[in-house]
Amino acid sequence: MSAQVNDALLPETQTARPTLSRSATLLTARDVLLQAKKNTVLKSHGRPPWYGEDGARISDAFVIGIAGGSASGKTHVARQIVQSLGSIPTVIILSQDSFYKQHTPEEIELAFASRFDFDHPDAIDMPLFASCLADLKACRQSNIPIYSFTEHQRLEETKYLYGATIIIAEGIMALHDPALRALYDLKIFVQCDSDLMLARRIRRDVKERGRSVYGILEQYLRYVKPSYDNFVLPTSRYANIIVPGSDNAVAIDIISTHIRRQLDERATRFRQRMADAGPLDLIPKDRKPDPDKEYLNVTLLPQTPQLKGIFTVLRDLATHRGEFVFFADRLATMLMEKATEFLPYRPRAVITPVEEEYHGQELDAESVCGVSILRSGGPLERGLRRVMNDIAIGSMLIQSDAATGEPLLLHLQLPVSIRQRYLAENTWVFLFDAQIGTGAAAFMAIRVLLDHGVQQDHIIFVTFLVARAGGIAVLQRAFPRVRIVCGAVDNGLREMWLEGVEEGEGQSGTEGRKVWVVEPGMGHIGDRYYL
Which residues form the Phosphoribulokinase/uridine kinase domain (predicted)? Predict the structure, then answer.
């Protein structure tokens, strides 16, 4: 039996579905809450590196599949696992409910009459479910469909998801499709008493989905229970572990221990090696590069007396904030003007005010945007807007792990032209940070853009200065086609220990950690600019 409509099941008198107002056809507040509950990004510790020194992905996200009957407690088990893990990297809970197929008007009429089988495998868009899950597992972004339970229809809107170290996919058919099972690293089946599942379903559908008890019971007896017996329960044989739908603390603890062990084995740590990579020579603008040597794809601003004067002001510890901001904005504008030279242009002829033809050029890019690495990249934003006033600018928050010193991706807010893969392939991105020392944050930011489909040679990294002896050598080897535009090159990169703060005086204590500072450098540029 497929998820088809059957006229023999219709009552003799069918009440037509009421005509909906324009506002009722939009995504309602109830649907928003349901989607937030079903497809959730939980961030507690950030996302550590998922790539090696060559820039290639070396570890996929850890994927868990949780199946079980309707209202058996699958989502609750998923959240129990997350809570049991404690301080963990970013987790995505992905619900099968988002992947119901697009319905015809006739099917929607039946759905409102509780006469459409939503519990059959054919009701789920399994290929789309597997495709989205495969993208997330491979550390790429995905745009998840949004399904309205009040409208019984998939909406035009989608939910952008990216950046998970752990993905939990849950649904009654989560273990049914072989393509889905092949993606899971751990398969779980939630076993629950039928009476308890029915009681939970009545309470949930009345409260969250606005259904009547009569309609819930009719749908349960007609579709839900037969589907559980024929399709859901048999998939328990594929599970690695069967978890009770209640009183399951022991099972959750076993699962959490296994996940933590798997994450420890996949950990990638090489920031220290980036800091010790050693210097590489820059190509002087007046010298042809030697094809037998390895050079950086770096463009250095001409070291004019004016530029050296600006850097003297910016490096001076005695410079007050107002003067620092003024010259930082001035330098940012100069860097962005130079960076725009590397965008593609095409010839264009125009007519001047004296009616003469002028042969010039115009931008030849479908989309251009900026992405700032917070918060030290912020001082470069004003320079970009002075050069390209209406450009969209996104942000990333990348900070160091206090224990390991490795970068952690904590926040991501990217322009639409990057979040959609078909747009990202033709988008040029100005990526900016105040400086490149070890290069760990720059490395992670570039990898994020590549995960979204941005072409390597479409990334232009703009920075005030770089450390010749730092991680820029690793960046060059990993991403040789990324263009770097900078104002100065400093020779030193010094390792030091940043002391922690003792607990007391209303302040929570923090542990010290290892940091690397550029010398002579400009200090904490973000702090000097904003504070």
Answer: 63-244
